[in-house]
Amino acid sequence: MSFLLLVVRWTQHLLTEFHGLKHQFKRILEKKFENQELNINADLNNKTRMLYNHMKQLEQTLQTVLSKKSFDELQSYLTKIDHSTDVNELKQKINDLIDTYIKIIESLEYVEQQQEEIDRNSNRLVSIKNILERLKELNAKVSHTICIIGLEKCGKSTYINALLGYDLLPSDSKRCTQIRTILKPPMRDNPNLFATAKFYNDSEFGNLLEQMKRKDDESDENFQLRKKQIMELRSTIVSKYPEGEQRFNTGSGGGGSVNAGGERKQVSEYIVGESYVNIIKELTIFTDKLPGKNYELLDVPGFDSPIKEHRLAGLQAIKSSDAFLYLTDGQRPDLTEPQMVLLNEIQGENHYEAMQRAFGIITKLDLCQTQTKFNDHFLKARDQLIEKKFKKEHIFAICSVLQLLKQNSEEFTVIQDKIKNFGELENGFQKSKTALSQFIECELPKTHLKQLVDLAKNELLRYVTDTLKTARKILPINPTEETSIDTYIKKLNTEKWDQVYEEERFQPTFAKANFWQKTQLTENRSKFIDETKRIFHDRFRALAMEAPEQRPQRSIKRLMFETYGFTPLHPNSHPPEDKIREKLCFELEKVVLRTSNELTQHFYDNYVCKLVKILNEICPEDNGLYETTLSLEICKIETRTLVTRVCGPVIAATLRFSQSDAKCRQAAVDELILVAPTVAYNLCENNNSNDGTNSGSGIMATFSSLAPTLVKGIELGLGIFGRTGIQNRLTAEVVKMIFRRII
């Protein structure tokens, strides 16, 4: 316990000393703070400078890319874009603008992160950034996708057949296309490839099978039989094509435009056959009849299809396409509710500027019997499309069936004679192909650029202006002045130093040091005491037991006979024995001192030095800021004083005087009883248990037998050293009564 109090006093001295240097540390660290030598200071300054740089960049954008002059130049460039414009140069300009706008958004996002109580627009900024990244992706595409959409039975299949030049997709009123179909230019590395069919995997097929609906007039037995037949059919197909794809080849080039024969018949069967709806996931047909070589047409099932996956696939196709053809039935010119829902979905936020790339195709107007009826249906359908934000120049009335008939056939002549007075219906199909090709080659990049300009003018400019207003509340300096940021940071550092030092340097370090001290010396007190006893016991015993082994063992008799000055008839053993005891006591005291020093070293390394290390965390940049005045030598002196106060009387009482020096021996015992009565009692008990077995080995044997007793005695003495003098005197009187009976 006395050692524990000693270490507590040392550590408390360190804490008191550290607290007394608080203001001195503050002055030293303040200079480092001003010179930006502290990590916390660098973080704070870096944040301020980063905010300043972003503000400066935003200010510059108002004078450059977001200025009225820049927008006017872009608008003028847009009006001059035509077929003679270098498309690569146009695309590069678009990419450069997108990169610039994305950097502006990153600056806006950083400034918003520094705002705490101000309303943020982060969600809208993320949305704009996504639009820019999507435009960049579209601008970089080599092959473009045009989606063909419309409700079921609106003439999509006939229109696609007209593009192919032959009947492939079902066009009768009883069967609608419900399989996703892609039309692509012929593959350069495989020109004989006519088509590919991709199948649903097991998981997708299982989900579709569960969602199958029974027909109105179909019994449950027939419904289950139909399911079973579909499963058997799929099993047969998958066994033939385990890779999940079937490829159709022709014997001639041209992407299967001629002589497709049985291959075309099989593809048509996949499209027409009702059983294949839940087996075939996607059909790709390669043809050279498309109005361009750098894009593909995607036909998705009707948006009023009963299959949910088909409707979702259609919406996703529009979102990812570069343009889309919206087909509507001219015999039903009024837009139905499903059509309105579809167009509203297309015009939503997920399809930014979708109507800029929309084409309206009015079908089946060749079924009108009179010119008046044609005009009525055409104008009504066109006006409703314009009302839904279709461009007038992107709306065409077509007669798809005329493209599938031979020009010298009777049916071709009848239809041609009938529609020759129906405005531009006769040439509408070709005009739609030409307009589509021009849009892809020229208008599509132009549309992307226009979207960028509108986005920057209507969105980014406002955000930059509003963000700069709020940013000046956080950083009230003028970004146009080069020296203003340095002056501001210096002033900010001065104003915040008191708070920074107290809350982020001194107080956390001092609290951690106090917590460590209490944990080690209060909470772990038992561990400290046990460890101290073990270290003192092990080192003292080892050093004490070494002493007699280093000298020759000689008996008192031999030493007495070797002594000059005594007659043979009157030998006296007292003088040699007294010298041996005196020498042994000196050596034992040296052992105690060495043990004390080693114990002190242990205390100093594990408590003083560790606490100094924790306190130096006040400045990790300079680990030697705090140096304690409590040296190892001072600690050794204090520990030695504590140890020798107990150990000296123990050694004197047990070893120094022989049995013939009764008075000296009694005086030493009395001193030991006063200093450490419990030690005296335990020594007495230990000697009684020996039963006088010390004879025969001389003083050395006595010393060896007393070594464990000395160790125990010293340990007990040190353990009760914390008692007051009154307590020791009371205990001493009790112990004296016991000793009188023994000595």
UniProtKB/TrEMBL annotation:
Residues 146-350 form the Dynamin N-terminal domain. GO terms for biological process: mitochondrion organization. SUPFAM superfamilies: P-loop containing nucleoside triphosphate hydrolases. GO terms for cellular component: membrane. It comes from the Eukaryota. It is found in: Membrane. GO terms for molecular function: GTP binding; GTPase activity. InterPro entries: Dynamin_N, Mitofusin_fam, P-loop_NTPase. Signal peptide: none annotated. Keywords: GTP-binding, Hydrolase, Membrane, Nucleotide-binding. Pfam families: Dynamin_N (PF00350). Gene3D superfamilies: P-loop containing nucleotide triphosphate hydrolases. Its main location: membrane. This is Dynamin N-terminal domain-containing protein.
